[in-house]
Amino acid sequence: MNPHLDKLHPYPFEKLRRLFEGVTPNPEYQPISLGIGEPKHPTPAFIQKALAHNLQGMATYPTTHGSDPLRSAIANWIEHRYGVELDAATQVLPVNGSREALFGIAHCVIDGARPGALVMCPNPFYQIYEGAAYLSGAAPWFVNSDPARNFGCDYGSVPADVWPNVQLMYICSPGNPTGATLSMDDWKQVFELSDRYGFVIAADECYSEIYHGGSAPLGALEAARELGRAGGDNPYANLVVFSSLSKRSNVPGMRSGFVAGNAAIVKKFLLYRTYCGGAMSPPVQAASVAAWSDESHVVENRNKYREKFSLVTPLLKEVMDVELPDAGFYLWADVRGSGLSDEEFARRLYAEYNVTVLPGSYLARDAHGINPGTGRIRMALVAEIDEGLEAAQRIVQFCKDL
């Protein structure tokens, strides 16, 4: 067996299952889960129709490169959203959901012949980053998020002797679970570090279309273009961006996303995925073309989240330290004022009010003396508005009962 498998941690939801073992939730309440970030808003009918009307495509093998219409639809969306022009043939690659691609990119770019390879990750983080690091033969190096920096990572705090071993950096903006976004100054710092040390940047932007202010979050490709990195002999050097339809269009079961950016990396990643069998099915490709080509459903979806957050956040602020995030559909709340640990809070809330939340310590690792998730909970406001509001009211009552 691959010995690297022994380095993998249980997934957060497995830890949650163990935490809830032996607990019988209060039967007076219907269950409400804020634990998993699975969109619950309805899938738009036109996407379902596009999928159903192209089932004849199941009779053919798809190419890993994807269809010309799909790559063009993605490139057009990137240009519309970020003002970035990409070559759909060489700088865009459809993938079966960003999770698969975020995992695979480490196997593509990590040079196992170089001892001591590191993959830099934010902390807390999406656990796929850590697993990808270990199974590619590297090790994760965590940079803790800082509440004083709006949960941003201070890359200036990384010791100088760490950087030469970094081969891949995962960046999640908007962040999971914090909702924090990178500024232009942040991207400038990251690009300069990449230029100096030669590591690849994997920018996870799956939550980019759910934002709560007036301005859309700055994208990595957009920042690179503004900083003059779109031209020359190696456009978007060392940068690839990952995005998905799951949150944007409420189709998590369709498993559809893309990788875009530096053509040399995309070319190698295409080669890697050709061997993995990572081709997207033709019906899903057709439905994805429809989804990437429409913005009205995205605006409607975003407005639902904005309404939900505007109702829920003030209620929860009465009993815990929580703020409206920059973007995403999570609330990252500090519950230390309750006198309970994050695990105790989640377990008792489930037992007494039948509401599931995720302990923050499950989403982070002990690094540099602390676990930055300790004492926090992640709440995924993915259900419809009425259910989200009901969950918030139960949490408020739970806290008042303590």
TrEMBL record:
Keyword field: Aminotransferase, Transferase
Q: What are the Aminotransferase class I/classII large domain coordinates in residue numbering? A: 32-381
Required co-factor(s) are:
pyridoxal 5'-phosphate
For this protein, the record's Pfam families field holds: Aminotran_1_2 (PF00155)
Tell me yes or no: is Zinc among this UniProt entry's keywords.
no
Instruction: State which Enzyme Commission number(s) the record gives.
Output: 2.6.1.17
Q: Source organism's superkingdom? A: Bacteria
State if Transferase is listed as a keyword.
Answer: yes
Q: Name one GO molecular function term.
A: succinyldiaminopimelate transaminase activity
**InterPro entries attached here?**
Aminotransferase_I/II_large, DapC_beta/gammaproteobac, LL-DAP_aminotransferase, PyrdxlP-dep_Trfase, PyrdxlP-dep_Trfase_major, PyrdxlP-dep_Trfase_small
GO biological processes: lysine biosynthetic process via diaminopimelate
Which NCBIfam families is this protein grouped with?
A: DapC_gpp (TIGR03538)
Q: What is this protein called?
A: Succinyldiaminopimelate transaminase
Q: Which organism is it from?
A: Massilia cavernae
